[in-house]
């Protein structure tokens, strides 16, 4: 068994657990920014001296530096997808709340409050 | 609670979400209105004549400009009804004609006499017409699933006919947009340790409701949604 499998499996499981549980935490958002900067640094280093990723790959038991980059890319892709998924969920939820409140205000504006005899005039707000 | 206007169900709001139910919604709502003066139908962005049929039936119309799903429509209806300070009892009712108004009448009467906060209709305590064997098996599986995820033990976990008090309506806050609202309802019950009972209802599976109803494969979507919602709540 290659050693690379251990960190990859651990990373995959950790991503799922940490991201699901703490998606609102500041630390996580800070972490993703640090990760982006780190990846950019790795990319620059790899371009300047391709032997460095190769050396790290050998250290981890991966044959080629490009493979190591591919694995990293997969991790980043999963993170990005999850992040977008959560963002979309929240946006959907906000949209539903917005549409709901518009729909209710609109109905009250048109036909009056749910119980007109409660002394409310059409369009007035009841809490 | 007792001093409210209980005469001819003046404190009851029946909430009916409606998505492209133009051919039947008017008849369904008119029947409901024979017993319940306050009916709100939420037109969930229908592309047919549902909205005008709702108005013709004399129900209150709340219109979603876009389709948002059954759960979202129920939540809209509940929030509309909550704006009525005298509303004490809330009913979720299907627009496709599968629920019987007689069941709602007896459920509301039962809730007034009992001290629980939620009454959940059960097809398996009552009778069902025209339900397929596979559908029945699937619903049994859903019951086990709900028991495992919410700890609430029912004979029929995905029955949409439910009657509940204002106190529960205020905390319900359905976030699921689609059919998984029925599960989220149970989750909220277990979170708030709401008292509940099941009540036998008779469900009519007509050709219309069968054609409109959800396909069984959708239960996979519902199950996964419920699990994801559970994980995310634990943040």
From TrEMBL, chain A:
Pfam families: DUF2304. InterPro entries: DUF2304. Keywords: Membrane, Transmembrane, Transmembrane helix. The chain crosses the membrane at residues 6-23, 30-48, 68-88. It comes from the Bacteria. This is DUF2304 domain-containing protein. It comes from Humibacillus xanthopallidus. The lineage of its organism: Bacteria, Bacillati, Actinomycetota, Actinomycetes, Micrococcales.
TrEMBL record, chain B:
CDD domains: DPM_DPG-synthase_like (cd04179). SUPFAM superfamilies: Nucleotide-diphospho-sugar transferases. It comes from the Bacteria. This is Glycosyl transferase family 2. Keywords: Transferase. Pfam families: Glycos_transf_2. One of its GO terms (molecular function) is transferase activity. Residues 14-168 form the Glycosyltransferase 2-like domain.
């Amino acid at each position: 068994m290659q050693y690379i499998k251990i960190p990859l499996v651990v990373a995959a499981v950790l991503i799922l657990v940490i991201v699901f549980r703490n998606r609102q935490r500041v630390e996580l958002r800070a972490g993703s920014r640090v990760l982006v900067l780190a990846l950019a640094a790795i990319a620059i280093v790899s371009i300047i001296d391709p032997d460095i990723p190769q050396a790290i790959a050998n250290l981890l038991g991966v044959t080629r530096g490009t493979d190591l980059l591919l694995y990293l890319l997969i991790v980043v892709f999963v993170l990005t997808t999850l992040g977008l998924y959560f963002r979309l969920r929240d946006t959907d939820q906000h949209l539903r709340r917005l549409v709901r409140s518009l729909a209710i205000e609109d109905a009250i504006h048109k036909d009056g409050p749910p119980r007109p005899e409660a002394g409310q005039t059409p369009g007035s707000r009841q809490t | 609670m007792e001093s409210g206007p209980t005469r001819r169900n003046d404190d009851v709001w029946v909430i009916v979400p409606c998505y492209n139910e133009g051919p039947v919604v008017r008849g369904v709502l008119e029947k409901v209105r024979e017993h319940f003066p306050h009916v709100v139908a939420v037109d969930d962005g229908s592309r047919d004549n549902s909205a005008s049929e709702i108005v013709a039936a004399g129900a209150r119309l709340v219109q979603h400009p876009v389709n948002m799903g059954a759960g979202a429509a129920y939540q809209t209806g509940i929030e509309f009804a909550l704006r009525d300070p005298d509303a004490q009892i809330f009913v979720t009712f299907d627009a496709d004609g599968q629920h019987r108004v007689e069941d709602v009448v007896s459920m509301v009467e039962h809730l007034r006499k009992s001290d629980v906060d939620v009454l959940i209709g059960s097809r398996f305590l009552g009778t069902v017409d025209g339900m397929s064997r596979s559908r029945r098996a699937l619903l049994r599986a859903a019951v086990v699933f709900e028991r495992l995820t919410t700890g609430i033990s029912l004979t029929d976990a995905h029955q949409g006919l439910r009657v509940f008090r204002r106190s529960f309506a205020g905390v319900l806050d359905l976030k699921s947009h689609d059919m998984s609202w029925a599960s989220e309802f149970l989750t909220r019950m277990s979170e708030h340790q709401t008292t509940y009972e099941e009540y036998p209802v008779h469900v009519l599976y007509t050709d219309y409701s069968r054609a409109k109803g959800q396909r069984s494969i959708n239960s996979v979507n519902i199950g996964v949604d419920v699990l994801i919602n559970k994980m995310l709540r634990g943040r």
